[in-house]
Design brief:
homodimer; alpha+beta; 5-stranded antiparallel sheet; 5 helices; 29% helix
C-alpha cells in the first residue's frame, strides 16, 4: 500500500506522499509517488498516485503527451494548454481511460484489478488553486471549503487528526504540520507505508516557487515532530481524568452515574453451586 | 461495520464494543455485540463479535450449549466445564465451525462470505486472565505481554492511540480511558460505528463483580472524555512548532536544512515562453 494526502486551504495547497510500494510483504521497494508539472508564472500542478504501480507509472507517462479535444475550439487540450485545473483533471482522467483500454483486459485475464487512484492539485493563471481526486474509471471529485482534504491508500489511521484540525482557514504551515502528523501516525501503525516522504507546499498565486522537499529519517523537522507528537499525545491523554466507578464518588463525571436508556448487557449466568452443562 | 476492542493488562481485562450494524448505508440498526458469561467465584467470560450479524448471533446461540470432547477424559467440554480459557476458545472455535457446516455452503451460493471475528477473554479459577481473537475458520490467537490488545471491525482509525499508550503495565482505569479514546476517534471518522457502547472492565482474581456499563450519548464520563479529547489533542498539536521554510532561520529545526540522501522530486517543467504542446 501507500499513503498520500493533500489539502486545499485558503492560503494554498499541501501535498504529502510516502514512498513505499509492496507486492506482498516480502517485496518492498521505494518508489516516489509525487510529480510536479510547472511552467513558471503560468501553472503549478502536483500529482500523487496510489494503487497498482504499473498503472500509476504508465498513467503519469501517458499524461505528459496526452490530449483531449477542446469542445469549443476543437483544438487539442493538454496539461500544458488547459486553462483550468478542471480541464487538467479531464486530461488525466482520459489518460487513465487510455491505459485501461490498453491494459485493462489483459489485467482482468490475470485476475488483477485495474486499480489506481490519484490526487491532482494546482493553480493555472488567475484561477483559484483546486484539488481533485481521480478514480480508476477516470472520473473525479473536487475538494470544497467543507471538505478540504483527500487521502488515497492507507487512509484510515491518519484520518482522525485531519478531521479534528483541518479547515479552509488553517494556515499553510499548520496544514503542513497536520499532514505530517497524519503521516506519522500512519507510519507508526502500518508497515506498508514508509519513508522518505515527498512534501510539496504551494502558496496561492505564486505559480511556481513552491517548497518541494524530500524528508527522510534524518530531516530535522520531521525528527522533531515525530519525537514530540508521541509524548504530547501522551500528556494530552494523561490530562483526561480516569473513569471513576463508584457512584458515591465526589468525582465530577463518574462513569456509572448516568443510567443508560438501553437495556443492560446480555449476561448468561450460572449459580455458583450449579453443575454443568 | 462495527468496532470492538479488548485489552489484557496486568490488572485485568477491558472490553469495549459499539452497537451499530449496517447492511449498506440505508439499513442501519442497533445491535449489541457483547455477551457476558459468569459463574460467580468460578469464571467470568466476555465475548465481543463482528462480521455478518446472522453468523455472529447464531454462533453466540450455539456456543451456550455447544461441547467438544475432552481429549483426556472423553467427557464433553463446554464453556461452563472448561478449566482453562484456552479450552473455552476451542469450544467457541468449534461452534464457529458447526455454523459453517450448517450455513457456509448456502451463503457461498449467494455470494456471501462466511465472515465473523470474535474477541473472547476472561478468567477461570486460578488461571491468569487470558484474551483471544477467533477467526472465521474457528482458529484463534492469544494476546501476550508484547501485544496486549486485539481489535475487530473498523480497527484502523483507533489503532494509533492504542499503539502509543497501551502496555501490560497500564492500569485498568487508564486502559479503559485508552479504549474509550480509541472508540471516540473511530466514531468521529466512520459513520458505520455508533453509540451506545458496551463496556466491561474485569479486575484479575475477582471472578465476577465486573463493571458492566452501557454508555450512551448522555453518559457523564463519555461526554466529558469526548468533549475533552478534541481540544486537548488540538492543544498538543498547537504545542508543536510549525515548519520553518527558510534556511537562514534561527529556528531549531527548519524543515529544509537537512539535505535528503534521496534524489529531488521528479519535476517536469516548461519554460515560461514555450508554446504547447
Amino acid at each position: 500500500m501507500t499513503y498520500c494526502v493533500a489539502a486545499r486551504v485558503n492560503e494554498g495547497l499541501v501535498f504529502l506522499s510516502d514512498s513505499r510500494t509492496n507486492a506482498g510483504i516480502d517485496q518492498i521497494s521505494t518508489f516516489r509517488k509525487a510529480t510536479v508539472f510547472e511552467r513558471e508564472g503560468d501553472r503549478f500542478i502536483t500529482l500523487l498516485s496510489a494503487g497498482n504501480l504499473s498503472i500509476s507509472q504508465s498513467v503519469r507517462e501517458i499524461l505528459q503527451s496526452h490530449s483531449i479535444e477542446d469542445e469549443q475550439t476543437g483544438e487539442p487540450l493538454t496539461l500544458w494548454t488547459a486553462t483550468s485545473m478542471y480541464d487538467v483533471a479531464r486530461v488525466l482522467g482520459s489518460a487513465v481511460r487510455e491505459l485501461h483500454q490498453r491494459d485493462g483486459q489483459a489485467l482482468r485475464e490475470q485476475g488483477v484489478d485495474f486499480n489506481v487512484s490519484m490526487l491532482l492539485g494546482g493553480q493555472i493563471g488567475t484561477e483559484d488553486p483546486r484539488l481533485f481526486q481521480i478514480y480508476s474509471a477516470g472520473n473525479f471529485i473536487e475538494a470544497a471549503p467543507e471538505t478540504t482534504y483527500f487521502q488515497i491508500g492507507e487512509a484510515k489511521y491518519g484520518k482522525p487528526v485531519l478531521d479534528r484540525i483541518l479547515s479552509s482557514d488553517t494556515s499553510l504551515e499548520e496544514a503542513t504540520k497536520c499532514l505530517l502528523v497524519s503521516m506519522d501516525s500512519t507510519l507508526k501503525s502500518n508497515l506498508s507505508v514508509g519513508l522518505p516522504l515527498d512534501l510539496v507546499v504551494y502558496r496561492t498565486g505564486q505559480l511556481g516557487q513552491a517548497h518541494i522537499l524530500c524528508l527522510d529519517e534524518d530531516n530535522a523537522y520531521f525528527k522533531y515532530l515525530h519525537n514530540s507528537w508521541g509524548p504530547k499525545l501522551r500528556a494530552a491523554f494523561d490530562a483526561i481524568d480516569n473513569p471513576v466507578w463508584s457512584l458515591e464518588s465526589s468525582a465530577e463525571h463518574p462513569i456509572a452515574r448516568t443510567q443508560s436508556r438501553f437495556s443492560p448487557l446480555k449476561k448468561v449466568t450460572q449459580s455458583a453451586g450449579s453443575t454443568a452443562p
